Amino acid sequence: MSDPALKPTVAILHYDEIGLKGANRRKFEEQLRRNVRQLCRPVLREVELDYGYLVARIDSAADLGGLRRRLELIPGIANFIFAVPTPLDLEAIVDAAVELAQQSSFTTFKVQARRSNKQFPLDSLELNRTVGSAILERVGGKVRLEDPDLTVHIEIGFREAYVGTERYRGVGGLPVGTAGKLVALISGGIDSPVAAHLMMRRGVKVVLVHFQNETEVRAETETKIYDLARVLARSQGPTTLYIVPFAELQFAIIAAVPARLRMLVYRRFMLRIATELARRVQAKGLVVGDSLSQVASQTLDNLQATYAVTPLNVYAPLMGFNKNETVELAKKIGTYEISIRPYGDCCTFFVPEHPETRASRKVLEAVEAGLDVEALVRKGAQGARRQVVYPEPLPTPEAMSAG
Ligand code: ATP
Ligand code: MG
After folding, report:
1. 231: nearest Cα among 125, 389, 56, 11
2. How many CA atoms lie within 13 A of 309 on its CB side?
3. What is the pLDDT of residues 239-279, one digit of tens each?
4. Ligand 2 center to residue 187 CA distance, Å?
5. Ligand 1 atom closest to the CA of 184, numbered from 1
6. CATH number for region 10-169
7. Does the C-beta of 326 come closer than 6 Å to ligand 1?
8. What are the φ and ψ backbone dihedral angles of 312, each rounded to 5 degrees?
9. How far does the centroid of ligand 2 lie from the alpha carbon of residue 320, in Å?
10. Could you tell me the pTM of the whole model?
11. 190 C-alpha to center of ligand 1: Å?
């Protein structure tokens, strides 16, 4: 493979809502910087704050595709550009833009300059015009502002300028670690990993909890949960995962609770045990993948009767989503393919032909009277196995040259 003459050596990371945070802005920027450093090691080096964006040096042997996929999932990054740095000098900027255009195949193009450094003598409109004319003259093509084949991005910083033709959209939101911690209940289904991701995108660090029933496919299910955790870890770094053995509790519930109410009781125990774990890790609430009316356990009555067992706030960010919206997001964040593997919807076991759709708290409390709730919850939480799941490392330059 022949390298193009001019290869991007920096990534310019633009953030999303950090700018709205007033006095806290600095804290958000620092957190994003730490997250990017940790998640993109060793491919990105020297992640630095410039005014209004981060600049990171890309290792010369980096796999840009892999880096792109990682940056696309880091909360807080609205968009990013792979670029080449130039001195703060019009001629150098024009030369870089022309060379990058020469390396691209395009008919229509536009130049999009941003001048963070207002000391630079040309404003962004003048830059667009000057660089655009140079490309027309030295490379050719046609200027088109709407949906051109090629966009040449120029960022005028304080120490350098940056020119790039590859700009990608990130997930936006806020950097993980700026909003505290929540415990997310993860089944093997499509919804709960998306719910966890949406809360990460609002700055939350999530601790994952999975309740595991006894079936012959336990190993497959556990691998599935682990794989989901690893994908979610791409957005937040090392991720704590609790696996809670649930068989004993299941059998106690089967013995004491009529079939049509079992699912709800089962979920009430999950929330109780998750509440216990939240206390342990100092999390401020719970996250679930419920979506209103999707299944019988998710009617307004049933949700209320379920969430009533915990004093913590229960965050259900998919509540107003249609299924196809959730599926689309699951595909985008990379959990979909894992979630649709067979096995591991642990609760199908519990689904009776006529599940209750209008349970009340009172009725559920009455059927639970036959169970030693406190002891079962304590035992469940005590049996939780904790592990820390890491995202796959980005390929290192050494590993790549060896392969
Ligand atoms: P999912 O696709 O996430 O399984 P769902 O729409 O199928 O969601 P349910 O299976 O009723 O709905 O579960 C609702 C929510 O309860 C899940 O999104 C998840 O947060 C939690 N949950 C269900 N089963 C488990 C489990 N075995 N371990 C942990 N959490 C669970
Ligand atoms: Mg499910």
Report:
1. 389
2. 25
3. 999 999 999 999 999 999 999 999 999 999 999 999 999 99
4. 6
5. 20
6. 3.30.2130.30
7. no
8. -80, 155
9. 17
10. 0.94
11. 9
